[in-house]
Structures are given as C-alpha cells and as structure tokens.
Give the backbone structure.
Amino acid sequence: MEEGQTEKRTRGEGRGSKFLALGRDVWEQLWTVETTNRLTLTLTYFTLLAGTGSDHRLTKWSAKACEQYLGIGKPRAKHAIDELIAAGLVKLTEKATRFAPQYELPELPLEAEPIFLPVQLVTGLSGETPVLRRVKETGDPLLLRMLIDLYSLVVLDATFGVPIANLREGGLTDGQPNARKIASVGAHAVWAIKSGTWRSGGGDWAQRHYVEGKKGAKGDWSRFWERVDLLKQIGALYFEPWLFDSDALDAEPLMPLDPAGFYAVAEPDEEAKLTRLAFDAARALISDERPYVMDNADADFFVPLTLHQQAPALRQVARLRVEADTPGRRLAWKRRRVLIEHRTAAYQQLIDDVGGGRFDRPMRTGTAGAAQWSS
C-alpha cells in the first residue's frame, strides 16, 4: 500500500460471491477443536464465512446473523465465536469494536482445492428455510458432516454430482446389470433399462457414519443410510437418473434421463424430451410390426445405441439441490447442455434414417458435433 493510502476494506474485497470457499484443513479442524456443542460451533463458522467478501476472509457478520439465518440464539452464538477464536480459526481485527465486530478467517491454502458451498445454505433460497437451519433442527452434527462432505466430492463433469463410486442408487443387485439388449437392427442395438432399488456408498467419507461391530460381528451401516434419507427429506439431496456407458465405477455419463420414465408429460423439459425421443427412436427401429418386443420388456427406459457399444448402465447420481454458482458449475452445465443437444440430434437423425429405410449408419454423438455421421 502506498504512503497516504488508507485501508477501506471492511468486509473483504468486492461485494462478495455467490459461493463460499471452505479450506479443507479448516473443515477438519472444526471437528477436533474443543467445544461444548459441535453442531453450533460449525454452523456459526459457516455463518461468519457467508458474510465474507470475494476474499472469503473478512466478515462483519456475527452472533446476530447466526440468530437471523440459522436460529442460533445470540448467547450460544457468541460462545461458539469465543471457542472459534480460542482455537485460532477466527480472530478479531483491529477495526472491531464491541458493537461492530469484524472477524478475520484463515487464508485459503494454495496447495489444495477448497470446498465450494452456496451462500444460500446459510441465507436460504427465496421463501425457503435455509438448509443449514433444517440440519440444525435435527440436532445431528454428523448429518452436517455428511452434507459438507458430499459438497466436497462433487465432480465437474456433465452430471455435477457425487461420483458413483462414492454414492449411487439405481442398481438391481450388487454386480448385476440393469440393461438388457432386446433387439439388434442394422448398426444399432436397443437396450431396455430397468430402475432398481439397490444403492451403495463407499470411500473414507462414508466410514465416518459406519458403526463398527463387536469382535467377530458385522458392522452397522443403518445410520449412514438414515442420514442419506434424511438429507433427501429436508430437501438437501436428490438422485438424478443417468445412463452411463458401462457399469464400471469410472464409466462415462451418456445422457440424463427423465425420472418419470419415457411417458409424455404436459410440459416436458429438455431431459424429458430427450428420454421420449430415445423411446421413439427405439420404437422406430423395432417397428410397429413387433411392438411386443418393447411391451414385454418390463423396462423403465428404452435407449438405442450403436451396436458395437458395450452394455450401458443406469445409475441414480447423487446431487445437491442448492448448488454453488462457481465457474466449475457453469462449465458442468455447459457440458450437460452440449451432451443433450448432441444426443437429441443423434436420435432425430436415427428416426429420419429409419423413416428412409436406412439402418446401417452408426450414431455419432461426440463433442465434435452430432451432425457428423459415418457414410
């Protein structure tokens, strides 16, 4: 700073972001520092963080904001702030006064990607109770742990969800595929996809909710799944059906599917239109002369793929309902839109080909352009 220039920052640089950046080191420390109430302590920290500017460090939000947004009484919020200060996770700045506190939070480390969280977790979406306030009302600190850990796992592919290796639904049974080839026509195969009820979670994050059994006894995963279900009930988590190119845990996502299945709805969105178009393309391939092939398939979805492609798999991808508006999220959204556009163009071209009596042209759905086709 040049001589004579005064420091004007009171809340960090800028007007603030639409997302919070939480250091992973701080996230772990919040679970080890001494406290009389772990849930209150952690929620108080998130409230202070929600009041920062674009540097995610300086905040003038205090116990009043904790009470306003999350329903934490001022005495308990002030006590939690004192605990955070004692632990070195929060400190008063030189500009802080008794009636106008200002706090500084730890600097984000450069060597590790932070956890990106939406500010609306604290402030709430328009007209809704904030998700973190709903978590507080459960009284379960490990529910909060699960929620933030899920945010830390989100990948920036077209699904913008939790990797299926860490959490998924939609399988029939362990290791059993849920896609069955019901027809081969020219260069195409029609797959019947059946949704299932089997679900799985894995990784270090899941182990925190696992109750070890006594020596020689089987452990208990019930608390893990109870918390997953509770996050769904309070509107923090949902599962979106996606078709993947195989049943491998590192499979590539092919297309999102409409949760309602292939049935038409009054005002279909892009996913519903694509799911219906895939059904129409499958019906066109099989032809009206063999409707029994699809009628007897006992499937929730019908999807044509190029004949040489391996068996696909349906997986329900875990997604957070309130998403952080980061550049990564916008990139993932763009990838999703491009994927849907290309797959839509491919199925429309397939329907046109079948109408013209041509069955030998494989579909092209890559990012190079869905309008490119083999001759």
